[in-house]
Amino acid sequence: MRFADALAQPGLQAIAEVKRRSPSAGDLRPDADPARLAAEFARAGAAAVSVLVDERFAGTIADLVAARAATEAPVLAKGFFSTEEQLRELRAAGADAVLLILSDLDDATAARLLAHAASLELDALVEAHTADELQRAMALVAHVIGVNARDLSTFRIDRPQQLALVSRAAGDRLIVAESGVTTRAQGAAAELAGADAVLVGSALMQAAEPAAKLRELLSRPLVKVCGLTRQDDVDAAVEAGADLLGFILVEKSPRRADAVLDVPDTTLSVAVFVEDTTETPADLVQFYPDDGGTIRGREALLLREGREVARVLDQPWQECDPTHWSTAAAAKGRVVLAGGLGPDNVRAAIAAVRPWAVDAASSLARAPGVRAHEEVRAYVEAART
């Protein structure tokens, strides 16, 4: 399968990277075996494997050759390339795609390399770090565009800027969010912004078991703990491994929060509204268009910057619909399954519905707005098993 075709498959895809060191972090995995890792990454669900061939990352062309021999997954050659001769060498070594970094290339050179890559049947990942470079990539009609969160001059990660650029680029191009993804929620943030894939390197190389870490990053459903009103409960949910933290900003709800509390950037915050929304610092908004005659209706929209990115399918308020799971299982697109979920039934719900995320609130409560930490831990563990 071609590199671009692999990234175009449904759902969030991953390019798993083999690199022994990083200029910003130093040695990551000096003894990394590219052949073994490439094979393990492919088995763990990687759509493609990236191999650093630059000596600044302790990589060589031989690493590319070894990875190519070990897997049928598309292989991306990553380094600083500026000549047609380099592209021919990479193609001969088995590369299916090549990285072109716009901060190192003028438009004429980039256009010439894109054309030469196409003649060699090499896909190109055209990398942008800034709004100007993104505009250049779009003008070059690059089919696959990488948006790198790392500033190559300072090595700092700016994920908000990356997500803003990903959102701007999403459409008829394949978009790869590069750098800065260490958790499932961060990958989901890129996905909801419009990324087709994430490129993950350092997080895998620093993990005790790189393939297991990749499998974790790609695993679904995400796990949401809702109805949080106290920072202590937020911290407990984060420690338990929740991906999404929900804050109900609805006056008549018994689980109403005064505000969206602090969450780490390894997770996503969700502000919950009924009938109307207000400005919020939350990453996402869960909006019930009507109150269903009670506190809320049954269906909500999950919004990112006002754009629908998923549907929340809930039980009736304080009631139980026995067809809820089967109805949710038939729904199209990203589904967040809510309503009556807890440690005792979330595994069965996941098996029946296969949702993008699961959402629990009342079953985890010791009192309205107060979470039972042991129940939160049990629920998250069951949902992530």
Mean pLDDT: 95
Low-confidence stretches: none
Shape estimate:
elongated
The CATH class designation of the largest domain is Alpha Beta
CATH topology of the largest domain: TIM Barrel
Question: Nearest-angstrom radius of gyration?
Answer: 22 Å
Alpha-beta classification: alpha/beta
Strand order of the largest sheet: 1-4-5-6-7-8-9-10
Put simply, the count of helices is 14
Indicate the multimeric state.
single chain
CATH homologous superfamily annotation of the largest domain: Aldolase class I
Topology, number of strands: 20
User: What separation lies between the terminal Cα atoms?
Assistant: 31 Å
Helix content: 25-40%
The number of distinct structural domains comes to 2
Strand content: 15-25%
CATH architecture of the largest domain: Alpha-Beta Barrel
Largest sheet: 8 strands, parallel, barrel
Description:
With 385 residues, the protein is of the alpha/beta class. The protein folds into 2 domains: 216 residues, TIM Barrel; 163 residues, Alpha-Beta Barrel (TIM Barrel). Helix content is 33%, strand content 24%. It contains 14 helices and 20 strands. An 8-stranded parallel barrel has the order 1-4-5-6-7-8-9-10, surrounded by 7 helices. An 8-stranded mixed β-barrel has the order 11-12-13-14-15-16-17-18, surrounded by 4 helices. It has a two-stranded antiparallel ribbon with strand order 2-3. Helix 12 links the parallel strand 16 and strand 17. Helix 11 packs parallel to helix 14. The protein is elongated and about 70 Å long. The two termini are 31 Å apart.
